[in-house]
Design goal:
This protein is an alpha/beta fold. The protein has 17 helices and 32 strands. It comes from Saccharopolyspora kobensis.
Length: 659
């Protein structure tokens, strides 16, 4: 297939903006920038910095900038929020499926060890499973037992909490208007901020309503925030920002130093460029290792860089916020030739250089020119600027007092060496091995004979990927036809023995018989019992729904069977003998996988429900047997859906066992 764009090359909208170094600033050009490109000729840099200052003064005048949003005491934390993690609510580091509880202590310990701790988390909740049924984005927060306690535990650990807002959710169950729902959610959860998914900015009334609900609320827009809205958005998400070869300046942060940006390129395996940009600009990063169910873990080198970077940033925050900032500060000729660059920050007799090495080889120095006295300290103590790494130099002027934070910082950094290991930390998704069946197949079951098979699987390209690996390795923003287009893949395997798959789904009446006979009750009954409030649903012949994998497995075991794998389901379905109940529902399969961070299962069959109005929903509609959907598994009962049922399967010793 020929694409109209190269996904490995940043789009024009992602690229840096060249700043003409003669004449007056081009307001229209610079207002639209993501990053002001750094000039490659050192002789042009004084004029370049002068134009950036002129543009900022002019832009603030044109937009009547006040900075009032940054003076709110309750929002002051955001300007020092140097590391934020976007985390799927059911990430197996944050939630234990075995213990059926959230494990913030485990998540926090991992972040502390590898990334130097976090300042905030985004609890991502609905996408990419929303659209499976009529539940809306608010339901995927409000139906979670103990979510308030999770937020409280994160707060107790010193983290701030963002919730996610999906403005595209227009085709699910309707409740109050979005502003009312979001304001109530923020207040109820005591959330500190809102991530604006797919939105660069919120409208003024939106901002005002949230501020009334939770004074000091912090809004973080996705991608490029318009200049005029830096006024009321404390943060923005620097996603897919391409820097120049000579590192440039982030436009929004230059405009307002207190505006925090978080760099991220979610599909990249080398985060050097965004880490360098964040370090030189005095801003933060987003740590995102599980992108909507896909493992994109950070290398030891990049994690170590984050750890070193945020440890310094937290200590020197006053310098980064209030010091005189000189981007692309003058360095030695040797440093320039080696691809070493720095920003200089000066305040009260202290001068800090945040240094990056774009080259592959360690640079031994010198970095800065000799000063007239005072004390120059290599904060990291490396003696070099590591290849593809960062450095930090602090100069204390003669007569200036040593900062109170310095001894503790130096002690902390002694245990944080640069790690050159840039290998990608692969994970494999392992499929759960089904327990063998123990009983006889039901009459009329569809027999799949033993032997090798080759299947064509049809699916929709989503950010969840399918079985192994990331769907967009090192790509910039995925766009159609790379995103949401129809795909096929081939699966092969072998059945060691015949398998019988039930011709029909389990019905409400059959499941009620199981409940009565066994007294079975699920571990998280809230959504289950609502469906069975009167003892049994009113439609006994309809496929049973509001059952999760454990419920389905328990029923199948009672019948002496088990769930079919997706391949067994498809092989049986391709005979044309499987029947669909009314209404049609997706079928659970025994193709449950985990890579240690994400659990997912393959659904088969399709359903009559279809959420309309956005490409981000799980696809609905009846599907042929070859079609599969990868569903990320939520915990605490949220996997129970009005559109998902199941059928049983049995292991056979011979094909003649079914009559």
């Amino acid at each position: 297939m020929t694409y109209a764009f190269d996904p490995l090359v940043p789009r024009p909208i992602d690229r840096q903006t060249d700043v003409p170094v003669t004449g007056s600033p081009d307001a229209e050009l610079l207002d639209e920038a993501k990053i002001f490109a750094g000039p490659s000729d050192p002789a042009e840099r004084p004029a370049w910095r002068r134009l950036l200052h002129e543009w900022r003064d002019d832009a603030r005048n044109r937009h009547d900038y006040t900075g009032a949003a940054y003076d709110r005491p309750a929002a002051a934390w955001a300007m020092r929020c140097y590391s934020v993690a976007q985390v799927w609510l059911w990430d197996e580091l944050l939630y234990s499926f075995e213990d059926r509880r959230f494990t913030p202590e485990r998540f926090i310990a991992d972040a502390r060890e590898r990334f130097g701790g976090l300042d905030a988390v985004v609890l991502w909740h609905a996408y990419p499973i929303i659209g499976l049924d009529e539940r809306n984005q608010w339901d995927f927060y409000r139906d979670v037992p103990g979510l308030s306690r999770l937020v409280e535990a994160l707060h107790d650990a010193g983290l701030h909490v963002f919730v996610d807002y999906n403005p595209w959710d227009v085709g699910t169950r309707r409740g109050e208007d979005d502003l009312t729902e979001l304001a109530a959610l923020v207040a109820d959860l005591d959330a500190d901020g809102v991530f604006l998914d797919t939105l660069k900015k919120a409208e003024p009334e939106f901002v005002a309503r949230l501020e009334r609900a939770r004074p000091g609320i912090v809004l973080e827009g996705e991608s490029k925030l318009p200049v005029e809205r830096i006024e009321d958005h404390s943060c923005s998400w620097a996603q897919f920002f391409a820097d120049s070869a000579v590192p440039g300046v982030l436009r929004a942060h230059w405009y307002e130093r207190r505006h925090m940006q978080h760099h991220v390129r979610r599909w990249h395996r080398d985060h050097t460029e965004e880490l360098h940009s964040a370090w030189l600009n005095g801003v933060g990063v987003m740590v995102w290792e599980v992108v909507f169910g896909v493992w994109v873990g950070w290398s030891r080198r990049d994690a170590a860089t984050v750890r070193r970077m945020v440890t310094v940033q937290r200590a020197v925050g006053d310098l980064l916020l209030g010091g005189e900032w000189t981007p692309l500060a003058e360095l030695t000729d040797e440093a320039e030739a080696a691809g070493v660059y720095a920003s200089r920050w000066e305040l009260g007799g202290l001068t800090l250089w945040t240094v990056v090495n774009r080259g592959e080889e360690d640079y031994p120095g010198p970095v800065v020119r000799a000063s007239d006295g005072g004390r120059l300290i290599d904060l990291f103590g490396d003696g070099v600027v590591p290849g593809r790494g960062i450095g930090a130099l602090l100069h204390i002027a003669p007569g200036a007092a040593e900062p109170a934070w310095l001894p503790e910082l130096l002690e902390a950094l002694r245990g944080m060496p640069h790690d050159p290991d840039a290998r990608f930390p692969h994970r494999l998704a392992i499929r759960r091995t089904p327990e063998p069946s123990t009983g006889a197949a039901e009459p009329g079951a569809v027999v799949v004979p033993a032997g090798p098979y080759v299947l064509t699987v049809r699916y929709r390209a989503r950010e969840t990927g399918m079985y192994q690996g990331a769907p967009y390795v090192d790509e910039w923003k995925p766009l159609p036809p790379r995103l949401h287009d129809a795909r096929t893949l081939q699966r092969d395997g072998e059945l060691a023995a015949p398998v019988a798959v039930a011709a029909s789904e389990v019905t409400n009446a059959q499941f009620a018989e199981f409940l009565e006979a066994t007294g079975y009750r699920p571990a998280e009954p809230h959504r289950f019992l609502a469906h069975w409030a009167d003892g049994r649903p009113s439609a006994p012949d309809e496929p049973v729904t509001f059952v999760d994998l454990d419920d389905a497995r328990a029923y199948c075991a009672w019948r002496g069977g088990r769930l079919p794998t997706e391949d067994e389901w498809q092989l049986a379905g391709e005979t044309g003998l499987l029947r669909r109940g009314e209404p049609a529902v997706w079928n659970w399969t025994e193709s449950e996988h985990s890579d240690g961070r994400t659990r997912f299962v393959m659904l088969k069959g399709g359903c009559d429900y279809r959420a309309e109005g956005a490409d981000w929903y799980v696809e609905g509609g009846r599907r042929d047997p070859a079609y599969s959907v990868k569903l990320l598994l939520p915990g605490l009962g949220l996997a129970r859906s009005a559109t998902v049922g199941f059928r049983c399967a049995w292991d056979l010793s011979t094909v003649e066992e079914v009559r």
